């Protein structure tokens, strides 16, 4: 008689990651293989995380998924690719010399519920955290212990980088089957304790071009992107690894800014051109260069993904002054104490010299709010059954 | 006895030119030699021109120059380079086998007055027209008949392209002494009579980074610029020459847009990054792509120089409809009949389909005004003595 696995419910959390050497462009659309390697910083889950509950049961009649309380289409190709890949790994595991025959649970349907502790409308790439969490959670449900890069990648390329904490690289790989296109940790979250990350959520005028379509057009039309991928990124990756290893903030910061600008340059070299940077983004860029020039060295660095939000890297000794500089140049309009979320930041006055250097051309309301965070760990299993997002009936629990 | 030249007063006009394959970056700062070739369209002087009067007299005690009625510093290095170069050519001519000894006029001082028939504040690169006019006028004064590319170039690189009408290329040259870095006409102004140019003067928020400093920083910091110059521009130049020769507007338009975007991409890849495109510039870009998509082909093309103004290329059969589209998306705020200058454009209604395609998200006042013009001739001598900007005393005539 085939042994049956009890119904599994597993809840995990996974982090957001921010690339400092950017991924933009695929060499294989189906396997999600990139044209260049990338390197990211994992953010702390206290401020940003996805929580996912996955349950399997013979009583479920179909796979179902709920995102932030709303049922979504489980037939979505990326989701399907993820589910197929994890089930393939589960079958492979079972058939690798284990005595038990394939358990019935592999034929069960799965219910998944996932929530973010940050707003989707904020334009903070949640698909990386979401697919990493899905991969990690389903792996726990199915007892899969192998590398999950491919599962996460098939959902969203950069999701594989959210499988680890600290500093992570996604090695592009050379193989056509993508088996060597994997994420690995470059340094743990404890490596650079002084590093801080500020996410400046800016007012968005229009929904930006989606990154999947955008990067495809870039690969098809931008000669500068091809050159970047082949001739420039390998050196950027080597240098960034060194910067992280040696905690060289000046070099880390400069390379971060340059790589971000170069990525956006290739977007502008796309046809039709893609512009993710808004006028506010550009003002943040100017603020950073101004701040650094005032101090005579790189104390703050910006990076921008496929959207207008700015992600700022700095060290803990600079956070308060830089936040004050942001308030000066982008005076919050209404929300007073809701302007700063996450890690506490003490209010400090700006020196007159810095005020003079920043100029008097404020953009009220340009920055909606700031999330202050730091480097954090990789995915976690939650042992507390109260954390499950699905009830015993396999349906989402009512929101608390 | 040395023969004396009579006091010379010469007045000339010279055009503005707009590059469709962009010059950005020098390989020699002193001789103004570019890192890549460039190709431009000369605009008609009925709409945009510089008028320059040069007078030499033994009674003048020093070189002096007035620009738009205001005396400027004649010691400015670019101006000095121009004057030295034209005088060198004048001495060389005299010494090339002519019988007369060098005339005293070569030792006379020169007075120069120059005016534009378009506002400097409009950000329409007037230095090309200005230095081309200066070179051309001084050549007439000194009887210089040789190639003036170097004289104009030493003032402002792109000025050499304003020495010819129609379609002009500035061949980058290979020699270190720059003798082969010259402009030549690719096709005359009569070659493509249907071609029209619309300059969309946009509201400027801030003075953009000057192009001399900007391109220097780009050369020093942008790997993408180096690649563009070495690997991409030669093919762009060959293709653009073909497009002009064959009057292939679709290909001309697409390459014009791509080269403009690529130039701006290298500006973004500069460190610190340079952004010449404003939010309004980007809206114009979207308008053009939308307009072309609606029509199913490239009917309109944009190009942007080191500033936010858009220069639009189209054919005469499309001008009215595109101007109507601009009015729809950028409703003029106050100036009613001052919104459209230059060649007359008949008001036409927009089709409902086009209105729908353009969307309903207007930017009132985003475009301050439009100058409608066409391809035009090179520099001209004005024979009418009433046109002189300097009086018999060598000082600027009072403004009329």
TrEMBL record, chains A, B:
GO terms for biological process: cholesterol biosynthetic process; isopentenyl diphosphate biosynthetic process, mevalonate pathway. It comes from the Eukaryota. Its EC number is 4.1.1.33. The keyword Manganese does not apply. Keywords: ATP-binding, Cholesterol biosynthesis, Cholesterol metabolism, Lipid biosynthesis, Lipid metabolism, Lyase, Nucleotide-binding, Steroid biosynthesis, Steroid metabolism, Sterol biosynthesis, Sterol metabolism. Catalyzes the ATP dependent decarboxylation of (R)-5-diphosphomevalonate to form isopentenyl diphosphate (IPP). Functions in the mevalonate (MVA) pathway leading to isopentenyl diphosphate (IPP), a key precursor for the biosynthesis of isoprenoids and sterol synthesis. Residues 197-382 form the Mvd1 C-terminal domain. Pathway: Steroid biosynthesis; cholesterol biosynthesis. One of its GO terms (molecular function) is ATP binding. Residues 14-183 form the Diphosphomevalonate decarboxylase-like N-terminal domain. Belongs to the diphosphomevalonate decarboxylase family. Transmembrane segments: none annotated. It is an enzyme of class 4 (lyase). It holds the Pfam family MDD_C. The keyword ATP-binding applies. InterPro entries: GHMP_kinase_C_sf, Mev_decarb, Mev_diP_decarb, MVD-like_N, Mvd1_C, Ribosomal_Su5_D2-typ_SF, Ribsml_uS5_D2-typ_fold_subgr. It catalyses: (R)-5-diphosphomevalonate + ATP = isopentenyl diphosphate + ADP + phosphate + CO2. SUPFAM superfamilies: GHMP Kinase, C-terminal domain, Ribosomal protein S5 domain 2-like. This is Diphosphomevalonate decarboxylase. GO terms for cellular component: cytosol. It comes from Balaenoptera acutorostrata.
